Amino acid sequence: MQTIKIATALGLLPALSFAQDISGTWQGTLHVPQQDLRLVIQIAKKDQGPYTAFLYSIDQSPDPIPFTSVGVEGSNLKLTIELVRASYEGRLSRGENSIAGSWKQSTETPLELNRATEETAWQIDPSQHTAQFVTVDKDVKLEVLDWGGSGRPLVLLSGLGDRAHVFDKFAPKLTPSYHIYGITRRGFGASSHPADGYSADRLGDDVLAVIDSLKLDRPVLVGHSIAGEELSSVGSRYPEKVAGLVYLDAGYPYAYYDPASAKLFEELQPSSGAPGPARLILEGTQKYTQILAPILAIFAAPPDLAGSPLPPGTDRAAFEKTANALSDSQTTAFEKGLPKARVVRIAHANHYVFRSNEADVLREMNSFIAGLPPAK
């Protein structure tokens, strides 16, 4: 349910010369239902060659995404990322300080870009953290962020297509009470991109390898969205390795298998399928029904779906009806199947519940963690 995520090979269209200059750093906020995304676009031109451009969605990751093509004609600009069928079209102002246009990706959303100056430029990676790479498999290294803090270790796991940087704003809210780490799973961001190794248990083993490498003593795993499968993989096979599991709208059929809910979940998947590692992860889901570690599961139930971007040709009313049915079915199944779990419903939260309802999530997490046996 993300808007911008996947980088692709860089191949640039020749740009037509014109008097106005689009080179420089541009920035603007894309207002989408799930969240506001601050976008930074860097455009450059060397001598008489073509323009090149890179996108930074800084509220999701500091990693640059190359535009596949840059087209310029007169004052008109078109930027394209082919793999995710996304584009930006706009017109440069006479003063060359702004571009009025729209972002297109399943839906069309207005986006005004302003030329950044030294005083106004947004920081691409403003979060205070350190980064290291941990080897988890042959020729596979994962990016691990460390936001610091003191107390029990918490390890944050992101949703499908996101990097650990998706928690850049949330993690510092936890550091007064805990030591916070984040992992970017294989296939995404700065982590290795192997051709295989995307089954749920293999991804769970990656998390365990990081825990062992950092010598963390029974951390609490906190997972968003598809990361629920990694939580369930660890919690069902090696519950002694963790103190508890926190599912942030992550308790769906890939995390706790319920046949009726799984059928509804399948109906919501786009027929064209997800690209690359995302497709392999969805194909590698497993059926977890016994999760032995302590659990806090927070659901956006019913979810806020107003205006959510959908694949082209999708009937919105039908999609929302199925999504609501899935939310109700899966939350109920999770409660009945795992009666010792603490299940919290937050009505009309969006999928990024740790953003839309940050205070609620922090309160529930602190209460849950306070009830766990003390760390050694």
How confident is the prediction overall: mean pLDDT?
A: 88
Largest sheet: number of strands, sense, barrel closure: 9 strands, antiparallel
Q: Runs with pLDDT <50, length 5+?
A: 1-19
Enter the CATH topology name of the largest domain: Rossmann fold
Task: Note down, in words, how this protein is organized.
By secondary structure, this protein is an alpha/beta fold. It folds into two domains: 92 residues, Quinohemoprotein amine dehydrogenase alpha subunit, domain 2 (Lipocalin, Beta Barrel), CATH 2.40.128; 241 residues, Alpha/Beta hydrolase fold, catalytic domain (Rossmann fold, 3-Layer(aba) Sandwich), CATH 3.40.50. It is 21% helix and 30% strand. The strands form two sheets. The chain has a nine-stranded antiparallel beta sheet, with no helix packed on it. An eight-stranded mixed beta sheet has the order 10-11-13-12-14-15-16-17, with helices on both faces. Strand 8 and strand 9 form a beta hairpin. The longest helix has 22 residues. The radius of gyration is 21 Å and the shape is globular.
Short description:
With 376 residues, this protein is α/β, with parallel strands linked by helices. The protein has helices at residues 200-213, 228-237, 259-267, 276-283, 316-337, 353-356, 358-370; strands at 24-31, 36-45, 51-57, 65-66, 69-73, 76-81, 86-92, 98-105, 107-115, 130-137, 140-148, 153-157, 179-184, 220-224, 244-248, 295-300, 342-346.
